[in-house]
Amino acid sequence: MKREHLLIVLSMLVLAFFLVRMFDSGNLATGPQRTKELIYSDFKALVASGDVVNAQLVGDSLIEGFTQDGLGYRTYIPAEDPSVVDFLRLYQIPINYVPEKSLPWYLSILINWGPFLLIFGIWMVLMRRMQGGGGGAGGGGLFSIGRSRAKKMEPDEMKVTFADVAGIEEAKDDLSETVEFLKDPAKFKKLGGRIPKGMLMSGAPGTGKTLLAKAVAGEAEVPFFSMSGSDFVEMFVGVGASRVRDMFEQGRQNAPCIIFIDEIDAVGGSRGAGMGGGNDEREQTLNQLLVEMDGFDGMEGIIVIAATNRPDVLDPALLRPGRFDRQVTIQLPDVKGREEILLIHAKKVQMADGVDMSIIARGTPGFSGADLKNLINEAALGGARKNKTELNLEDFEWARDKVLMGTERKSMAMSEKEKRNTAYHEAGHALVSALLPNSDPIHKVTIVPRGRALGMTAYLPEKDNHSFDIEFLSNRITIAMGGRAAEEIIFDEVTTGASNDIQQATNTIRNMICRWGMSKSFGPVVFGSDNQSNVLGRDIGKDREYSENTATEIDKEMRKTIKFHDDKAKELLRSNIDTLHKIVDVLMEKETIDGSKILELLGQKKSKVEPVGG
Ligand code: ADP
Ligand code: ZN
After folding, report:
1. What is the CATH code of the structural domain delimited by 151-330?
2. Which of 145, 200, 349, 601 is most enclosed, with most CB atoms within 10 A?
3. By percentage, how much of the chain surpasses pLDDT 90?
4. Active-site residue, 426 included
5. Share of the chain above pLDDT 70, in %
6. DSSP letters along 381-411, please?
7. Does 400 or 4 have the greater pLDDT score?
8. Phi then psi for 337, rounded to 5 degrees?
């Protein structure tokens, strides 16, 4: 964007220059209308008739001066008439010589080359557009289209070390051997060690894959080249492949080093998955990557680390021996890991004495390293707004809620009716959830609009990584239906607020039937092409390998399942309608309540909720 602005300003400048030049050539001293431009022969005739008073030779092609009636004139001398001076002398016209008005070199370049620059500039902008934004720090532009846009970081810029990475100890251990190797590949070779040259890091976004790869380079003090798989995939066939080649070339010149390819699934996704299946460009790029991977033996000191959050969609060819044959899986951090990560990032902010980060760590299951970093950042921003000089527990808890539930939009006007509707909706979710034993504890219920939602019921998963059982999933669907069910029971109508819930419930049901083989009527079958178990979400609807008939059956089964859970939610709410009203009353008054309050209203003293942060 910036670049485009610059171009526009530049074009304006060039244009302005042309305009000025045009007026300037009209001789501003006398004013354009008082100067007459003469054809050379007319000028000669004028001289001959004695009407010319004086002549000023500018350079060797222009003559300016005045005529008898006080008007200015100008004329250009044809190249084939060098005798003009003699001619003027003949008529005794006073002549004076001035050198050609010369412009500073850069202006004359601008004027002479301006139009070219302009066209070139516009072309470049168009090219960048076609490349799909580009914008990488790699300096893009036209000439580098086939070059790798890998960002290089030298060892001295790499301040990241293993000390900056927490909560993923196993992955760190896995990589310490790689660090040793990169430090001194020759020594390693002598000892006969074999090191995997390609490593695949898989894990959810924000779990620190990039960070860890950088830390390996930082520990080993070697250069770090990074590029994203999506940078390879351009609209021009062959560009991606040439970028791959170029990136490896750079790697070879800088070995030992690390080449990091983020989002490898953008190039390495198997056919029919990810971006538009089977396109030539992507395949060429992938082939080039395979060729390059096979083309070095790993003892040269190049380690290629690829990252993905969808290992399931990768082309198996990538994972063959000698390619990305070592896999490092990065999990979301557990409680202890979260505390360590929080402490790492909290070092950068002014924290009050005695803040117990373990409390925050316990209240943030499912948070990734990036989320935790964000939490600390939000706490610092919030503290700054409140003019605090140091952050205490309260600030971090506030930030956690913000990250967990989105920004509060207290100022958003909600009518009383809307507020009531939302209160019943959220209370519906919360009550159903509280009534079902095998479900995540409620963290908070709020009818303060947050993000795009009017209200929100937030849960605190007890376990960090669920392997979901049928009951849990079924309860989750019932809870999702609870909001809408409450609205229907009370107002006999539903608002659009429930669409997200239905989406969520539908997805869960679809997965249960088609992927997890949890449907009684269908039994343990997987529908769809993808028969590796896959929890990371892939569109099941795509390239399905079952008949129209089966599709109809699945639809029927889904509708039946939704109806079943909707009925169940309504039944739970109807038999606890007093509690529902009570929750709504408290919500209308307080706007945000804790999970424990729901249990209290339900008369269920034993708290399912872990006391989080007091
Ligand atoms: P990924 O590549 O897995 O999407 P990143 O490495 O880009 O994740 O993580 C983004 C940021 O989040 C990192 O720069 C770091 O500040 C923070 N972060 C993520 N994981 C960790 C971790 N395990 N320890 C410390 N910080 C982390
Ligand atoms: Zn809802």
Report:
1. 3.40.50.300
2. 200
3. 22
4. yes
5. 78
6. HHHHHTT-SSB-HHHHHHHHHHHHH--B-TT
7. 400
8. -60, -40
Ligand 1 atom with the smallest distance to the CA of 201 is 3
State whether CATH 2.40.50.100 applies to domain 335-404: no
Assess whether the C-beta atom of 204 lies below 6 angstroms from ligand 1: no
How confident is the model over 474-520, as pLDDT tens digits? Answer: 999 999 999 999 999 999 877 776 778 888 888 888 888 877 777 77
Q: Is the CB of 206 under 6 A from ligand 1?
A: yes
Q: Is there a common fold for 151-330 and 335-404?
A: no
Question: What CATH class does 29-98 carry?
Answer: alpha beta
* Residue 484, token pair as written in the block: 């809408």
Out of 108-122, 321-335, 596-610, the most confident range is 321-335
Domain ranges of the chain: 29-98, 151-330, 335-404, 416-529+544-602
Return the number of other C-beta atoms located less than 10 Å from residue 395's C-beta. 24
**Edge to edge, what strands does the sheet with 442-446 contain?**
456-459, 442-446, 592-594
Ligand minimally distant from the alpha carbon of residue 340: 1
User: What integer pLDDT is reported at residue 215 of this predicted model?
Assistant: 94
Q: Is the CB of 314 under 6 A from ligand 1?
A: no
Cα dihedral across residues 481, 485, 487, 492: positive or negative: positive
Q: How far is CA 151 from CA 137, 138, 226, 596, in A?
A: 7, 6, 5, 50
Which CATH code for domain 416-529+544-602? 1.20.58.760
Shortest-distance ligand to the CA of residue 344: 1
Would you say how long the chain is, in residues?
A: 614
Q: Which residues contact 587 (CB under 8 A, 6 or more apart)?
A: 423, 426, 427, 445, 447, 593
